[in-house]
Amino acid sequence: MDGRHSGTATTRSDLLRLPRPYLLFLGDVGDPAYAKTAFGVRDWASAHCVGECRLDGGRVSLGLPELGPREARMAGARALLIGVANVGGVIPPAWMPMLLDALANGLDLVSGLHTRLASIPALREAAERHGRRLVDVREPPPAIAPANGRRRSGKRLLTVGTDCALGKKYTALALTEALRLRGVDVDFRATGQTGILIAGRGIAMDAVVADFAAGAAERLSPDAAEDHWDVIEGQGSLFHPAYAGVSLALLHGSQPDVVVVCHDPGRGHMLGYPDYPMPSLEDAIGLNLQLGRRTRPAIRCAGISLNTSAMDPASADALIEREGRRLGLPVADPVRGGACFERLVDACLDAGAAGRAG
Question: Where's the D-glutamate N-acetyltransferase-like C-terminal domain (predicted)?
Fold first, then answer.
């Protein structure tokens, strides 16, 4: 995440001066699934979190100190981060008093929602009046070119999935951390708003015009030293009826040497699409490799990342072992870690070395 190999041809998001640390805003949400941005930042950038705040009716907590904007500013916070990813990515009227209060008390606003902060007159005027910044991390960089398909130096790993919202970001972050602990020169490449808030840079792929999405993926992961790894956060799924397009663009533009397939074993159908059953892991491996060979003929699948968060440890361990035997691949839950995860890391390095030699 240090950008030593990023050069000047990556993204404008590399130049984001994110005002950290944050006061994490949870709005009035009652379902933790809608606060995934806040949970992700808490889990992977805890040093940048001062506290949390929510509105009446909000039932989600991050376990951080509950602070108002003024208290948070006194505790060192520089911005209120909207940690909610609601349906449509909108800013409802009920949030406005808290957002305006944050600006008045010396905090910038940071958002990864589809609605741009500066598009709301009251926020724009208040920010100008108080000399505060409105930071939208979902704004793609300018002048993205179409993909050229040119093979790039360095090694790349892309997390892919059987569905949305099942652990591609957490897997990529865990693999990045594990590789760094082994002395590997590695960068995490964020492709969604939460990843950008954690890493401080990246490109929100779902905000890029479709014809330029593969080009954005190329720009996100430029040429690097041959022993350098980019671990790229996956988006969506090739099987998703709505979001397969961004997944394919990311697969083609990333040109990954290695993919790790992420899966939630507890899902029977695509999230929010009950008429679409989940694909098998075998189908997910096969389709990603088939389509990935278009721009990276030596692409390999290193293994499987299972989201076993809903399972007890004994059941999770049994499933991981069973699926590993059945598929003949390393299987692990990166959040649980352990020997299984270390074997998955080994397989990623081995697959990357074999792919570059092939």
Answer: 147-339
